[in-house]
Amino acid sequence: ILGLTPAGTMPQFSVQNGTCVKTFTGSLMSEGSDTLVPVENVRVENDTLFIEKKVPQAFAVRAVGENYKKDEILLKKGTRLNYSEIALLAELGFFHIGVFIKPIVGVLSSGSEIKDLGEALENPAQIRSSNHIAIANLA
Predict the structure, then answer these.
(1) Closest CA to 49 of 12, 105, 1
(2) Which residues contact 90 (CB under 8 A, 6 or more apart)?
(3) DSSP bridge partners of 49
(4) How far apart are CA 4 and CA 81, in angstroms?
(5) Which of these, 44, 68, 67, 42, lies nearest to 53 by C-alpha position?
(6) What angle do CA 64, 68, 70 make, to 5 degrees?
(7) Residue 79: count of CB within 10 angstroms of its CB
(8) Which CATH architecture has domain 1-66?
(9) DSSP string, 9-74
(10) Tens of pLDDT along 6-39?
């Protein structure tokens, strides 16, 4: 085990045959990686990882940009915005959009790890608040 790559950090390792990196959900994979083996399928002793249950090559690997295709229409004008549409807009960085009927909602997100949209994340332990954006726009 060369090390670990928490979500939100850039990989620092190059994987060769016989080596691996502990990777978290949402993390970029290290150079040379081709498969993600779930933690439930492995046993770790000291700095050595043993695969107890094999998975096919490229298991749980998603290519960068795989979610959407170039020029794909994700939302059409006039679409009623529900949770998934609002979450999509937040994911794509749309903080302000024009709407026909503006909802009135109050939502409070709390936690020292939560940062508002537009606020800089100061370290990898912090997360951007996105659920409150989606929930507030459901009304």
Answers:
(1) 1
(2) 117, 130, 133, 134
(3) 44
(4) 38
(5) 42
(6) 100
(7) 9
(8) Beta Complex (2.170)
(9) S----B--TT---EE-TTPPPPBT------GGGEEEETTEEEESS---TTTT---TTTTS-TT---
(10) 888 899 999 999 999 999 887 889 999 999 999 9
State both tokens at 107: 């939502």
pLDDT in tens, 64-105: 788 888 899 999 998 988 889 999 999 888 988 888 776 666
The C-alpha atoms of residue 33 and residue 139 are separated, in whole angstroms, by: 44
Domain limits, the chain: 1-66, 83-136
Is the pTM higher than 0.85? no
Number of other CB atoms surrounding residue 22 within 10 Å = 15
- The helix/strand/coil state of 77 is coil
**pLDDT on residue 41:** 97
- Report the C-alpha gap between 10 and 3 in whole angstroms: 12
